[in-house]
Amino acid sequence: MPEYVKQLDMLSKLLQHPLTYGLSVDDPRTTFLRRRIIHSKPFLRKIYSEWYSAIVRALGRKQDVLELGSGAGFFREHCPHAITSEVFATPGVAIVADACNMPFIENSLDAIVMTDVFHHIPNVSSFLTEATRCIKPGGKIIMIEPWRTPWSEWVYTNLHSEPFIPQGTWEIPRSGPLSGANGALPWIVFERDRALFSQQFPQWHITGITPLMPIAYLLSGGVSMRSLMPGLMYRPIRALEKLIGQRHGAMFALIELELGL
Predict the structure, then answer these.
(1) Residues 247-251: what's their mean pLDDT?
(2) Three-state SS at 52
(3) 21, 40, 111, 207: which is deepest, by most CB within 10 A?
(4) What is the pLDDT of residues 34-48, one digit of tens each?
(5) Could you tell me the CA-to-CA distances from 207 to 49, 142, 250 in Å, in that order?
(6) pLDDT range class, residue 10, cuts 50, 70, 90
(7) Comparing C-alpha atoms, which of 52, 138, 96, 72 is closest to residue 83?
(8) CA Rg, the chain, in Å?
(9) How many domains, in total, are found in the chain?
(10) Buried-exposed string 73-89: b where 16+ CB fall within 10 A, e elsewhere
């Protein structure tokens, strides 16, 4: 192992947030503690507030909205009519729902939204088939997910615990409900394999991919590490990102899909 990799690993361990130290990501307690972490870190909370606001703007007047993977977040503060869900029972979540087998009748939802969830879905084709069944024509899928750029690939490969495999497929090996992941999955489906996506799901149209946040999330420490910035630095950091441009170094993207009429 190269020396710099050892040093990065040591740094990550030193910065790990004490609340989740030693807990499995598949333990429901970890999801609940991550909610506490987001609320306790002003810089990180501002990131989530900006993400949620962007999702709400993209929703427009959609009313029957399902959020997947709600356990650690606070999306309903921005969208009070949203139905919250998680893959296991956890406080503050309305229903237990699997993205590949959702408990809704046909054409009953206006939209499905998610934040940092798509790259954990074990079978993308199954999810999109299920979403097509549940969502009304003209409905949407809106997500904020990791995105591949040269910078983000280095960060996710060297500083993040989840796999980031741009050569991967649309399926993730099943393990626990959250430990299975490929951070490159959104880029794979909606950029690398865009033609395949359009061929297999022609009723779905990619209406927008907006690259976001080259450095802000990294400085926040996310949900597993200590914050490197106080909340008062959020606006200056975001202003700097927008000034230098977010496309070529983005770590995330806002992805918008619409179901044809």
Answers:
(1) 92
(2) helix
(3) 111
(4) 888 999 999 999 999
(5) 22, 10, 19
(6) low
(7) 96
(8) 18
(9) 1
(10) bbbbebbeebbbbbbee
User: Under a CB-based contact definition with an 8 Å cutoff, are residues 152 and 251 in contact?
Assistant: yes
Which CATH number fits the domain that encloses residue 188?
A: 3.40.50.150
Which structure tokens are listed for 252? 């995330």
Task: Name the one residue in this structure whose structure tokens are 């989740």.
Answer: 20
Examine the pLDDT at 11 and tell me if it is beyond 50: no
Read out DSSP for 132-162? HHHEEEEEEEEEEEE---HHHHHHHHHH-SS
Instruction: Tell me the DSSP string of 67-122.
Output: EES-TT--GGGT-TTPEEEESS--TT-SEE-BTTB-S--TT-EEEEEEES-GGG-S
CA dist 124 and 153 (Å) reads: 21
Q: Is the pTM of this model over 0.85?
A: yes
Beta bridge partners of 68: 114
Residue 158: pLDDT above 50?
Answer: yes
Chain mean pLDDT for the chain: 90
Structure tokens, 235:
């606006």
DSSP-derived letter for residue 257 is E
* First CA to last CA distance, the chain: 53
Per-residue pLDDT of 173-194, as tens digits, reads 877 777 789 999 999 999 999 9
Q: Quick one: average pLDDT of 111-137?
A: 97
Q: Which domain holds residue 199?
A: 3-259
